[in-house]
């Protein structure tokens, strides 16, 4: 039997490039067994991440950025947070990768190779903000279980791919379609093949938006493995859990998609406010759709020092899910008074927007700069943690940095 069936040439080549040398008997490596040199490798170099990122979990890999690392208008890979629910697929053969569209609401299922997707449909590039629904969870009290994200589970990369709507129209969808759900190649942590790590989706109206992509490139290169190589669904402005990595199948559903992490209290918040710590029945929980208005001061780093009389340049990004940010303010007196500052238009819908300001301080001392964005509906960020919810989602409190004037 051909031992190469155990492990693909592409994987061997990827491993060789990670080692910086040939994996001499690599073809003999049983499938699923990682060379020690890879398991021992720290995830920062393995995924080409900046060493200062925060590693929250190794099984599965979860890491986030610090606010000042997110200063670029288009987030480069070293600062892009990683959120995995299962095991990163190991043995990807890009030449054999296919995408199948099926489900109750397609006329007939259809399968495309990657090459077919690329040649048959027009490609588009958009900058799209992806934020984990649990970003900011660490601030909730009583605390919520799950990764204790601070502020860095958000990024805005440039995605290139085909429109999901073009593919769905090519397949032909029935008028009773209400939702799409993705199915991906990552294994459940238990390695039980009957279980999926995650299988979420979006209503058909979001699936049909121009910016909803099946992306094969991120920032002008192949999507990095850890972010969904070779094909990723990207639905900007919604909890990033809706943007399936390693997508192999999209089911067009005649009901709300019921895949892994669509049920229970996953990615849901109470439909109406509850008291902190209160138990909420499943039927009183609503699926998160657009992410709320939020902003981040990415320069300077918290703890900046400045001599008296000098002005401090601050800058950062603001975003508001499906909406646009129309007003940006900052405060140096713990939110008692606010100054407006310019906010730039997004380069395209669903991309984060940039602000900057020259801040003056009245006298030497300790200050905090707080930033507050308001969206086109007039909704602003809360100064402190917003309404408590059982899973600690949607914390869009004002971001704060400390500044000392000497
Ligand atoms: N197949 C698959 N897609 C996935 C996930 C996953 O574990 N598996 N995690 C989701 C969640 S919860 C988030 S927040 C984003 C994280 O995307 P990133 O790793 O590119 O930052 O991917 C989403 N898509
Ligand atoms: Mo997430």
TrEMBL record:
Oxidoreductase molybdopterin-binding domain ranges (all copies): 87-259
Cofactor entry: Mo-molybdopterin
Entry-linked CDD domains: SO_family_Moco_dimer (cd02110)
Organism: Algoriphagus namhaensis
Keywords: Metal-binding, Molybdenum, Oxidoreductase
Protein's UniProt name: Sulfite oxidase
Pfam families linked: Mo-co_dimer, Oxidored_molyb
PANTHER family named in the record: SULFITE OXIDASE, MITOCHONDRIAL, SULFITE REDUCTASE
UniProt xrefs under InterPro entries: Ig_E-set (IPR014756), MoCF_OxRdtse_dimer (IPR005066), Mopterin_OxRdtase_euk (IPR008335), OxRdtase_Mopterin-bd_dom (IPR000572), OxRdtase_Mopterin-bd_sf (IPR036374)
SUPFAM superfamilies attached to this UniProt entry: E set domains, Oxidoreductase molybdopterin-binding domain
Ranges of residues in domain Moybdenum cofactor oxidoreductase dimerisation: 287-404
């Amino acid at each position: 039997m051909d031992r190469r069936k155990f492990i693909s040439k592409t994987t061997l080549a990827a491993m060789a490039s990670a080692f910086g040398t040939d994996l001499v008997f690599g073809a003999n490596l049983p499938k699923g067994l990682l060379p020690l040199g890879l398991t021992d490798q720290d995830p920062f170099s393995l995924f080409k991440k900046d060493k200062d990122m925060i590693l929250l979990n190794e099984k599965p890999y979860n890491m986030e950025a610090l606010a000042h690392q997110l200063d670029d208008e288009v987030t480069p890979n070293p600062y892009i947070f990683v959120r995995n629910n299962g095991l990163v697929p190991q043995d990807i053969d890009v030449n054999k990768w296919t995408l199948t569209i099926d489900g109750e609401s397609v006329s007939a299922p259809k399968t495309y190779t990657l090459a077919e997707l690329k040649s048959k449909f027009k490609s588009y590039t958009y900058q799209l903000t992806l934020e984990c629904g649990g970003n900011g969870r660490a601030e909730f009290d009583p605390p919520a279980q799950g990764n204790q994200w601070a502020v860095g589970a958000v990024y805005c990369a440039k995605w290139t791919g085909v429109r999901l709507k073009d593919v769905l129209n090519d397949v032909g969808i029935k008028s009773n379609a209400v939702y799409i759900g993705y199915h991906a190649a990552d294994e459940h942590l238990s390695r039980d093949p009957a279980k999926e790590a995650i299988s979420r989706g979006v209503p058909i109206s979001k699936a049909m938006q121009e910016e909803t992509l099946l992306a094969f490139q991120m920032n002008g290169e192949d999507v990095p493995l850890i972010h969904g190589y070779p094909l990723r669904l990207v639905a900007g402005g919604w909890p990033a859990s809706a943007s399936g990595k390693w997508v192999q199948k999209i089911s067009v559903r005649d009901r709300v998609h019921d895949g892994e992490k669509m049920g229970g209290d996953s990615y849901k918040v109470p439909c109406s406010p509850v008291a902190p710590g209160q138990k909420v029945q499943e039927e009183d929980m609503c699926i998160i759709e657009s992410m709320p208005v939020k902003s981040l001061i990415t320069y300077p780093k918290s703890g900046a020092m400045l001599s008296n009389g000098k002005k401090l340049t601050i800058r950062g990004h603001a975003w508001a899910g499906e909406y646009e940010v129309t007003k940006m303010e900052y405060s140096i007196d713990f939110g008692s008074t606010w100054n407006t500052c310019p906010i730039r238009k997004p380069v395209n819908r669903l991309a984060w927007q940039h602000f900057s300001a020259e801040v003056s301080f009245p006298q030497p001392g300790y200050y905090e700069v707080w930033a507050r964005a308001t969206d086109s509906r007039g909704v602003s960020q809360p100064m402190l943690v917003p309404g408590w919810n059982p899973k600690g989602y949607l914390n869009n409190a004002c971001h704060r940095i400390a500044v000392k004037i000497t």
